[in-house]
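Q: Could you predict the 3D structure of Pyridoxine 5'-phosphate synthase?
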Amino acid sequence: MSASDKLRLGVNIDHVATVRNARGGDYPDPLRAAKLAEEAGADGITAHLREDRRHISDADIEGLIDMLTVPLNFEMAATEEMQQIALRHKPHAVCIVPEKREEKTTEGGLEVAREENRLAHFIAPLREAGSRVSIFIAADQRQIDAAHRIGAQVIELHSGAYCDAYAEGRFNEADIELEKMREMSAYAHSLGLEVHVGHGLTYDTVSPVAAFPEVRELNIGHFLIGEAIFLGLKPAIREMRRLMDEARA
Ligand SMILES: CC(=O)[C@@H](O)[C@H](O)COP(=O)(O)O
Ligand SMILES: NCC(=O)COP(=O)(O)O
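A: Sure. Here are the predicted structure tokens for Pyridoxine 5'-phosphate synthase:
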């Protein structure tokens, strides 16, 4: 396996900030988590600067930009404020995600097809600034075609429907969702898009997704931060890495 074939693990540190923000102080520090994740072998760090700043803050993003030795995948909504922040920091990757104030977490993928024109104009300066532009979407051919047309280099398939179905014991539905992601990974790859997958992945759900040959990166956060309470962050990440490597072998 060449280095370019390696399945990368992006560790999302948002929920270290959620715990910090519960008390409004300085700890636990998401930057310290990012450092440990790097040391544990993370290939990248993902952080979502929500418009309501419910977890990651502007200062966290600045700190990550200064400190990281691995690429930052900066998740953000397609708003002018976020575009300005991304253009100031020029992260390795910008992943455009949908956001709703009332949601607990990112509920679905971005509606690219309905907003093609606006999104094409929105991502052009980000690409020109040197960031790789990724679009967080459902495993839906219409959305993939639209992401391709607007000039995104990467798509990230939302694995939440698969993971939720699995967690709730709806295994037939989980298989259907998995099959959709498998087919759409191959389809997106055939168009020349780089394929990532993320949201809600756990030790129980990661292996079949890691086995898709077209997938280049998994972004995983909430489960790892939870598991770190019991195992420690580095062992939790290393176990995820082991499962990914085993599935890919
Ligand atoms: C877009 C995405 O899937 C991640 O950002 C993840 O959801 C963590 O952030 P939230 O839990 O706030 O959605
Ligand atoms: N884009 C998905 C991500 O970064 C991680 O999502 P989760 O594992 O925190 O649900």
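Q: Anything worth pointing out?
A: The chain has one domain: 3-248.
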